[in-house]
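Co-fold these.
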Amino acid sequence: MQRRSLVSAALAAGLLFAAAGCADSDPKSTSGAAASTLKIGFLGSLTGTYQAVGTDLKSGFELYLATHDNKLGGHPIDLKIADEGDGAPTAVPAATKLIKDDKVVALTGIVGGGSVAAVAPLLAEAKIPLIGSNGRPELKDLSGVWTTSFMSTDTGQSIAQYIKDKVNGPVYAIGPDYQGGYDQVGGFTTEFLKLGGTLVNGKATFTPFPTTTNFLPFFSQIKASNAKAVYTFYAGKAAIDFVKQYAQSDAKDIPLYSAGFLTEGSVLQAQGDAAKNILNVCNYSPDLDNEENRKFVAAWKQKHPDATPTTYAMASYDAAAVLDRAIAAAGENPTPESINAAVGKLGQIPSPRGNWQFGPKTHSPIQKWYLRQVRNDGRALANVMVQDLATVGA
Amino acid sequence: MDAYLIPAVDGVGYGLLLFVVAAGLTLAFGVGDVLNLAHGTLFAFGAYAAAKVSDGTWLSLALAVLVGTAAAAAGGAVLSALLVPLAGRGHLAQALLTFGVALVVGDLLVGLFGPDELPVKVPALLDRPVDIAGHSYPGYRLAFIGVAALIAVVLYVVVARTRVGSLVRATVDDRDMVATLGVNPFMVRTGVLAAGGALAGLAGALGAPIIGPGPRTADLVLMLSLVVVVLGGLGSIGGAFVAAIAVGEIQTIGVTSEVTQDFAPFLLFGAMAVVLSARARGLLTSRRSAA
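Predicted complex below.
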């Protein structure tokens, strides 16, 4: 009992120090006058297929607010939360309400690329910036769109050189046949071929989504192809099926490399031991050794003792950090326009993933990617940091 | 050719799973004259039971099978009672009612078990790869093939060799004649819907590691078993068997062959269209061949 209260006291003290540290670096904590309350809109999948991701985005953003006095850039924040549902048909009315009724100064979140594509024109019309934290489709007009996650092609691109160096022979690339799958796996195959690597069949194999739940026939093909390694991207239930079946299939002894989402968050616990040793690439790992990450993970564990923070939560936490800095730099009375202009001038952003900055071409992070391996970290299965990979972005 | 061994074996397993489900659906239609569009939902009952009850021990697996089968059988009986006011209104009204029930119950299941597809634990002895002619294959699936084949044999014996079975076959052939013999049609329908539900629940509980429980499970299983029932000839158990194995093979070998890969999503319904246009009554017609 005593031991326990000692631990919580130490934790509380740590948090206090962390909070004090933030206040110091807080760019506008000096302004004396009571700042006006700003409304920020959060849109994410709180129900439906992507509930786990949407909930993580919400938790990440709220964590930043909770650890920063519920203020961004010195202004108290009134966070308006809306449910994106499964995609554009539910996201558009929810976003419309945030824009028209709540009159938010900025919008954040959004799980699905399709939702972003549908909501972006509404935001452009209202001149409200989007600091998105997950989905990022191809968009024509990026002037008011910023994304703190990644471009889908970055993931595979960043690990291509590593696989080329490590694997002596042809690689089998496989993924789901939707845009995210084409981008994720295509990012790898394009770079890998450019580096002189060999792919089985000369190209990636795409499986019908979401109808493919049985991957065994593909694993037989992989085995028969004499591939020396497999690179893949799946997410959600497909990731669970893929990993569990792989471990018992003909291909089980062929090294498996993947985009980090294959083993990220709740799917990892469902995959269990079948996921052990999978090497995956992600822009975040909960065990990264830097000051921002220690603060982030400690605060997260305080709120969610049973869960490890995911890259989704981290990206949303960063969206709040971006808004914090941009609002502080946007003058006494921040408007959507002045906030958007300020985001464009932010430069390096300290983050749990390490420092990053918005790329001028994509308005997405130029960031480092990390190689992780699924191992038992002493308590549970976790993605454990192995080494740095390439820095990618434009 | 070697590369197709495992998919071929797996196709048999997948086909047997579909057969057990579809046998329930085709029984309900052939005997009870009910087009039960909530059949996939009854499968989901069994699958969720497996996910929630089975914790890796043999006893819990047996309990999950029992709970899932009983829950789905009860669900079938309830459907039969719900259908009473629709007597004489035809298949469209039945389809609407059962589909509505499927939507409502599907939503309740999501509310109860969450929107994620749940993982299923199986006993450790089965949760490892086994060797088939030098190829590795999941142990659970191999065991499933054995059990499902046994279920298929039992089903055949019951329908072909027992008094209940002869009643079933008689009802498929001439429902009105059976009624005039003094057999209460409501009891027949309730019994057959409960039995069909039990088959769906049994398949769901045993097949959960293959087609797992989730928000889309009911739709997927309903669609595949409808294809099987249509291909096999409405009401024919033997036809359903042949069709189920064929669908299983199409789903496994079909998706991997270089030639057919691009057409994989269409293979199933392409096969259905071809069979329907060549033989409108299905692969095996039901008259005199219900078994």
